[in-house]
Amino acid sequence: TMNPHKYYVPTGVGEKFINAVFGGNYFISLYSAANGVGKTCLGANMLANLFWPENNKFFQQDLMKRWPFPKKARIVTDPTTILSTIIPELKAWFPAGRYKIDKMGKNYEYRWTTDTGWQFDIMSYDQDPKEFESVTLGLVWLDEPPPETIYKACVSRLRRGGLMFITATPLT
After folding, report:
1. How far is CA 113 from CA 70, 99, 143, in A?
2. Which helix (H) or strand (E) holds 151?
């Protein structure tokens, strides 16, 4: 299908997480669960349904319908996860032909621009914390617990309002 995210059905816990993130009551939401339960799939579908609304019944929250913050986002994760998990999951759920990708000198698809006015970057925890500064964002997805310096830099990027969600399998 051209828009697979239209048919995505989350788990019960996934549905609760979607409502927590986009319900408008929390600045930061955490989904802590074991590996293999679909956290990355859920995150990819949250973005897909925000960027390209398809009337999926699980994504009808006020923030999903009327995003008031900057349409600029960031995904941050471990370097190996970018290529092995994040990018393949985004490509599996994002509608083909509705976004452009630019590596911008990286060895992976770094900057993504949608045909709906959204732009996001994929960054890794091994990057210098200074690289996380200066830009104003409306949404941050931290995949796995971040180092404190990167966490603080990402929070401060939401200076015009926005939200952050974290998907993680904390091992310690």
Report:
1. 14, 5, 20
2. helix 148-156
The CA-to-CA distance between both ends of the chain, in Å, stands at 40
Query: 98 CB contacts (<8 Å, ≥6 apart)?
Result: 52, 114, 115, 116
Structure tokens at 129: 């914390």
pTM of model > 0.90: yes
DSSP strand pairing (139-143 vs 163-168): parallel
The SS3 assignment for 71 reads coil
Q: What phi and psi values does residue 102 have, to the nearest 5 degrees?
A: -135, 125
Q: Which pair of structure tokens corresponds to residue 131? A: 């690289």
Tokens for 158, please give them: 């939401």
Q: What is the pLDDT of residues 107-165, one digit of tens each?
A: 999 999 999 999 999 999 999 999 998 899 999 999 999 999 999 999 999 999 999 99
Report CA-CA distances (Å) from 79 to 27, 47, 66. 26, 20, 33
Q: Are strands 111-114 and 119-124 parallel, antiparallel or unpaired?
A: antiparallel
Pairing of strands 111-114, 99-102: antiparallel
Contact by Cβ (8 Å): 154, 76: yes
**Scanning the structure block, which residue is given the tokens 């210098």?**
128
Q: Return all residues near 46 (Cβ < 8 A) that are at least 6 apart.
A: 18, 21, 22, 59, 141, 165
